[in-house]
Amino acid sequence: MHAFKDSGHIFRLVAVFVVGIILFLVIRGFLVPKSFGEYGHYRGNAMAEAAARPINFAGHETCETCHVDVLDKKKDGKHAHVNCEACHGPLAKHADDPASVQPPKLDTAVLCVKCHEANAAKPKSFPQVASADHSTGLACDACHQPHSPAITDGGTK
Amino acid sequence: MPGVEGFMYPNEIELQWSVLIVLYPFLTGLVAGAFILASLERVFQVQAVKPTYRLALLTALAFLLVAPLPLQLHLGHPERSYEMYLTPHGTSAMAMFGFVYLWYLMAVLVFEIWLDYRRDIVVMSQSTTGWKRWIYKVMTLGSSNISERALAIDERVGWVITLIGIPSAFLLHGYVGFIFGSVKANPWWSSPLMPVVFIFSAMVSGIAAVMLLYMLIMRLRKEKIDMRCVDTVARYLFYIFIIDFSLEMLDLIHRVYEADESFRSLDFMVHTKLYMSHIVVQIMLGTVMPIVLLALTQVLKLSATARKRIYVLAGCLTMIGIFAMRWNVVIGGQLFSKSFLGYTTYKMGLVTREGLLMAIVLTVLPLVILWVLVKLLPPWPEKNSGSLPGATPAY
Amino acid sequence: MSITRRHMLLLLPAAAVAWKYVLAGSPESSPNYTMSQHWWSMLIDLPKCIGCGNCVRACQSENDVPDGYFRTWVERYHRTDYDIENPHVDSPDGAKDGFPPTKEAGGDNFFVPKLCNHCSDSPCTQVCPVGATFISPDGVVLVDKTYCLGCRYCIQACPYGCRFLNPKTETAEKCTLCYHRITKGLTTACCEACPTGARQLADLKNPNDPIHEFLKTHSVQILKPYMATHAKVFYFGLDGSVR
Fold first, then answer.
1. Contact C40, C137 (CB under 8 A)
2. Pick from C49, C134, C181: which is nearest to A40 by CB?
3. Which of A2, A153, B27, B274 has the most Cβ atoms closer than 10 angstroms to its Cβ?
4. Do the Cβ atoms of C98 and A69 come within 8 Å?
5. Per the confidence metrics, is the pTM higher than 0.95?
6. Owning domain of residue A113
7. Interface partners of B (3+ CB pairs, < 8 Å)?
8. Which of B186, B117, B199, B5 lies closest to B380 in space, CA to CA?
9. What domain range is B30 assigned to?
10. Residue from C84, C99, C151 to probe the interface with B (highest B Cβ count within 10 Å)
11. Which residues of A touch B143 (CB under 8 A)?
């Protein structure tokens, strides 16, 4: 048609744009991750990947499968609901290979004050002491057995 | 904790968005503003500003080409940025960046520049020699049709493109304002006014930039500055500045009046940490002073020399003021704690990937690109045509 | 320590098999775990919190959290009598080493552990430009490390300050509710390490979860309810001064 005779150059530019868009759509088809959109606007595999981290804390139930004697001592005392690894730290590696991975011996002189050092912001009913005055320099396990901390007859370990 | 006063949530102490994120809206603002100036002539038939038309388009292109760089340099994984094209998240304002950018670059700027320059491109593809010839040849897209009719079609299509370009320019820069304005977690940013303030301050900075560049280039080429053009540009700058200032004052008054939960913390921040950048640089030097200077030129009868000097001063202050506005929004929004109980400090690196040196390089780079563009696509092919034919000579 | 031979013979093989699987963390979804059967949340019983910082240390250890950044942290509040609007708050190194002695006398002092609230209507997932952060079908807000651009928009959008940029991976990061643990029947590291039971993982879709009884008998709050994030970390005993 007459009108289009002198607008060939415009069509050329539009053609360049159209080719670009088609190329983009083709490339996009290859690059979008396969699991994308499975559950929502994200890669569906991301959850499985998040779940695949190695575990450091075994969880008290795992500890209790072997250390039944400790569980017996703990269950009637004040520390009944304090999980093993709250004091002993992450021990999944020990649970995996008990013989070759030994948990480090804890030093009650520094461990117990993490919870029991007196602090005005702690709940009033929570047992807390000013460690400097309380034990006259002795380590906590000189008088308290950590697994059952109530003092009975001056008993130690 | 060094640099922290009061209480900040532990993860808030380090700023997330650096000076590069200040620079990005500044650059796209110049793009939008320069384009609006160009559209004044094309769509609104303001003939007086025609000498700045092509320069405004080239300025917009130069800044647009650099605009993605601060964003890429800021990303933790720039090599993954293509994901924004693959899986843009419909609820995220940031996701539209790639598409709006490409649209504006190709379908508006490049298209319009090509249409306006096509006659010159075809002529130069036949007259120049050497490697430059090939550049022009590619730009012709193989068509050497510069008949009357073809050029008339170009004119018509160009008009439509400019018309579409105006809302496109608003979208290009407005979405950035929305990125900030839609964050409910941050009371310094969260406001429906944010996109509007961004757009108007963009227009102010863009118009000022083109005005300064025009005067500078004419000076360098030892040509006469078209005073009617510059007076008109300055007049539009003045009008839009009034609107911009009114919007910012509206935001301020609203905040002070409502005095919500965040007000005391923000007020303290503005008077202490942001005193220099907000009160002194942005408001006093960057807004009030240019408005007063421009008002003087409107009210008093001044000589051309005096007017030129005032325009240069006002223009420079404007650019500094609008940069300060971006700084105060981006950096200011991260200096206070969302607990409203404390403040932190922005530790800007000097030679790091997101540091001061990089910001300076990215500000100068568009000017270098503009220089190349002006050489390649001269805005005023004939000597002494920095003025309109038959323009009122400077007195 | 006396572990009888009987115990070893009975328990070790079974434990070993189960444990190997748990430790290895295979990329396939855990067997016996269906996402749609769970809607994870957490309950924080503030009167029980003693500010020991065990949770912060456990989280750092379990999740390789870099120094200076926090997936969870504890804040200490000092509120003088009636002045709810101006508490004095501190969180020395996120409470990783607990707290120094509380100097301020008078008024009320207490601890507030904080973490990602795994909001049902999270503003952070809304703003991600590519879909790298999302809420899983079982209610955990996660970050896809291999897809995140590191644009930091989500960090800006979180009202609670729980996100940060991991300097090693250069991606956004935050509490994952120990997704790798809860999908295998374990509790989160912070809950495991908490000595007083102040932090408890809760599954709102599990009818036997103790949280249901708790919610019936206690009044609970969430942080910044006016943000309408529908946070899923419930606090019992949250003072009005808590930010």
1. no
2. C134
3. B27
4. no
5. no
6. 105-157
7. A, C
8. B117
9. 5-376
10. C151
11. 8-9, 12
